[in-house]
Design a protein that fits this description.
Oligomer: single chain
Strand content: 15-25%
Helix content: 25-40%
Structural class: alpha/beta
Length: about 600
Amino acid sequence: MCGIVGVTGNDNAVEILLEGLQKLEYRGYDSAGIYVNDENGSDYLVKEKGRIADLKAAVGPEVHGTTGIGHTRWATHGVVSVDNAHPQVSQDHRFYLVHNGVIENFKELKAQYLSDVTFTSQTDTEVVVQLVDYFAKQGMNTKEAFLQTLSLLKGSSYAFLLMDSNDPETLYVAKNKSPLLIGLGDGCNVVCSDALAMLNVTHEFLELQDGEVVTITPNSVEILDREGNGVKRESFHVEMDAQETDKGTYPYYMLKEIDEQPNVMRKLAQMYLQESGKTNVEPELIAAIKAADRIHIVGAGTSYHAGLVGRKLFEKLTHTPTEVHVASEFAYEKPLLGENPFFIFLSQSGETADSREVLVNVNAENYKSLTITNVQNSTLSREATFTMLLNAGPEISVASTKAYTAQIAVEAILAKAVGMAKEQVIAEEFDLRQQLGLVATGMQAIIDEKEEIEDLAKEYFVDASRAFYIGRGIDHTVSLEAALKLKEISYVQAEGFAAGELKHGTIALIEEGTPVVGIITQEKTSSLTRSNLQETLSRGAKVITIVRQALAKDDDTIVIPDVDEMITPLLSVIPAQLLAYYTSLNKGLDVDRPRNLAKSVTVE
């Protein structure tokens, strides 16, 4: 989950590295560091515990160079400390290495090759850089030593960026499972975990495949595949405006991204839906899903929750049996599959390690698949049969908001397209273009009243130690996402439950003052959920309701506009996102960077 940046051939290397790390801080923010070299024998290593701001403060005016590497860390091996921060350094200070991933056999390699080395960190990364140094001392050149080291790593995920202080213009890169891109600049080249880190330098990037090793100088990029053969690859252009990654006047990215959701809905409607009612979905994709006997949706965290909503959409609009799987479970406990399954992968980043592991297995079985992602040319996008883009713009806050609603909207679009192909009347009559217009307007109405939701957060959640969200059917799926938002950024122990399950154990946790939020958007279950809320009230709970206008009563807390019941999660989740945001804000926490979390989970 760490973030990597590198640059060669630019006098502003220090500024490029620091700004790039700032853009990647969502990937890890335990510690950070840079190493730069100025080609004339002067080099500088600066590492600091904490945020990128702390690293910037530690970088003095004397630190300069034309080539360098940088890293922002999410701790795996070793505690959070300056010693464990990257870059890690060989014992003789010749080699410097940054790394994203996990080396499974690092202890064995350390014992076999490096018993005479004095280690300064607890990291697996230091073992790798000391190995490069070990083989260099055996007479190998840097590339040979790097390749020999890579050949010893077993079952590992990694993205490596190596510098040799004796050859300060050259960067050595290797990738397996963890994301890494090469950026092509004007008289310089860069390396990054995510293109958004280097948009101020270039918009042209080269994707890397697993097992490839790359040698980069200011004017050249040499890619070798697993067999050592040279690879020629066309670059791809990233259209994103660098300003899209700025907070602007917002105090936190999360609030900005919540506010962007109405526009995301409008963009998706324009992109995928025609005024005639037809969809702009790839015909081959529609045909592949139409032919499937079962749909399997795979995701993790928020994407898994979006998949739960998607299951209801696909089953209702296409009449195709649909299952939803937690990626990390599916990867190693594969369920029985039908004759012709179709797989849908949901991932904001397109780099989720657990989902990628499932996709590797799916491809080995020659099953067809679709990735729904926010990131063009991401690993899951490249390796799936089909891709549909969310086009939601960069999502920087660790807590996902607009990606969740965009995933649901794209699932609805796809389900309608397949349902129409199967001549399902409900799909043909479902005016999704109009409904997404209503959703966008409804989202904006809720967002415009955010101050009232802040008042509720202060009253109900800021001083709470636990909280519950409940609902039935599709509202239950939203309760899971709502609880996740609250727990991950405010540290309130929050859980989402099917309302009818309260009496089967959970109600034992309800005590005086416990916040319970009931989500009520489905007519056939509204009275049942209200009854469950009364049961919590009688035990001292403080109740909030999020209710669709047509089902509202005078004493309801938050009333959301009416849209078709199938897509109410697009609206009912907005108050929950805002409740989580304002709870975290008023507890004085870092909304965008909650403790122990990172945005992209690229390590299993």
